[in-house]
Amino acid sequence: MSSSSSLLLQLRGCRLELGGRQVLAPLDLALRRGERLALLGSNGAGKTSLLRLMHGLLPAPGRVLHVLPELGRPPRQAMVFQQPFFLHLSVRSNLRLALALARQPWRLHEAMLESALRRVGLLDQAGQLASHLSGGQRQRLALARAWALRPDLLFMDEPTAHLDPGARREVERLIASFAEEGMTWVMSTHNLGQAKRLASRVLYLEAGRVLADAPVQAFFQQPQGRAVDQFLKGEWL
Ligand SMILES: Nc1ncnc2c1ncn2[C@@H]1O[C@H](COP(=O)(O)OP(=O)(O)OP(=O)(O)O)[C@@H](O)[C@H]1O
Asked: What is the ipTM of this complex?
């Protein structure tokens, strides 16, 4: 098997119950290196829960992170949340804190945060309060915070929700360029165009069940069953 198809993460019969009710029905999923997986589904379908479970933030017996043969270690992971949290500190201090929490050697912090800010086009804002950034800049800072740790596997929960078209395009460009660098990602989105533009594979959830899991072209061009077809036509009730 080539390194581009190395297995990174597997869910084997993973299910999730929260507050006494089933949020995710038992599911099997294999994620390979280089995949760009979009999670689609209506509100409450379970996309965020699945992302959190895949990232290891929710208990999931059956979740297996594979050692990458070429690296000799499991993939490094990071997650970008829909509404990223920053302290009332400068952009630079927020990043430095993230590096410290991730136990990065302090002598590398300055170089790491500078390259991360440059990577997302925020170097000029390094001294600004994070709370003074625009929505698009905050999302780019969240991506910088993740990218600084050089994750092999990045989880993103609706990273462009609430952004205007210009800011969305900038964030999309970054996400596309991360993939070109070899990063594997999983992203939830309500934006079908975004899934078409960025993803290589689409997984459709409804009420905690996977109803479709297909390469992006097949997902949008071939029938995927009545529920998915209705969702794609905007007729889902
Ligand atoms: N901590 C919790 N306790 C109980 N139920 C929860 C909890 N977190 C999520 N849920 C429920 O799990 C279901 C899936 O929620 P989830 O946020 O994963 O959906 P989603 O597809 O990401 O929705 P959206 O598109 O609105 O973000 C919902 O019915 C939600 O109410």
From this structure: 0.96
